[in-house]
Amino acid sequence: xxxxxxxxLAGNPNAGKSTIFxxxxxxxxxxxxxxxxxxxxKEGNWQADGQQIQVVDLPGTYSLTAYSIEEVIARDYxxxxxxxLVVMIVDAANIERNLYLAVQILEMGIxxxxxxxxxxxxxxxxxxxxxxxxxxxxxxxxxxxxxxxERGIGDLKQAILETLQQKED
Length: 169
Hints:
This protein is an alpha/beta fold. It has helices spanning 17-25, 69-81, 95-107, 119-124, 131-138, 153-168, and strands spanning 4-11, 42-48, 51-57, 85-91, 112-117, 141-144.
């Protein structure tokens, strides 16, 4: 079993990547609520089960087509650095728009997990997402989170650990 893993966080601007980064790593990265806030990758660490997990918070981007600096940074990191896992953070209240990036990442053959963040906002808007059906359709684990309230973070950590261990099997 590997002792050190790299996990990248990818998603649209304002989907909650930095909030999930803070919850996973215990960091206090400033979280801004405007496009382009995170324009360079941020790194932190998390220890679990005797393993070190480096977490990389990539800039918010809508796609990997590489027209903006955010897209270039995110795409180049995923393609060139080969993280062990990409957690695709999706705003559950805007799932249609947010899934485009997730599908692009999955089409690259990257090992991933989908974090349906802001699931409380989606529920308050009457949006119901069948997590099992979505997981089956995408072929990846799906975890519901409300990062701002640290709900689902334990489930996300467990899913990350399980998926990283599956990678070696």
